[in-house]
Amino acid sequence: MGYAGKKLKPCAGYATRYGWQDLYLQAYPEIGNRWMANCDVPDLDLLPARFGIKRIRFSAGMEISAIHFGMWLLSWGVRLGIPIDLSTHAAALLKASNWFDRLGSADGGMHVILEGSDGSGRQVTLQWFIVARDGDGPYIPTVPAVVLARKIIAGTLVRTGAMPCMGMITLREYMDELEHLKIKTYEF
Question: 164-183 pLDDT, tens per residue?
């Protein structure tokens, strides 16, 4: 809520972006289309620096279009200079969004789309999707902490201290932790 409509700091490949703007429609396996909009997350700083990414975008979306477009409209109010701090209204906005719950589901998704050249210079696009059913989506961002805690307990974590956890867990370790949940991945 705090960055909606506000200018986001420049990141790889984009000069000017605003929070919760630049709408686009993303198709997901099983759960259909979701509207997406710009988000501000640490990944925008961390990933280009580590992997030499030239263009990166991080977006989020809500299943119920009315709520998504409501946030988009509020972001325009902020962007146009209406003096409102949306973060102070988060509790009321969440309560209002609950009125729409019966129009949606407890299903969610996340995706990564990579575009670039392979070793022979051929243009390739890789797409990876993760779809969570029945409210299991909130487990997805907690998994790295669980895997790292298990490594600390086992004494197998060699790096310690405050830092991003990039490269400290494998995709297999991550997916193993989600195995008991209604979560599937797709690659295209």
Answer: 888 999 999 999 999 999 99
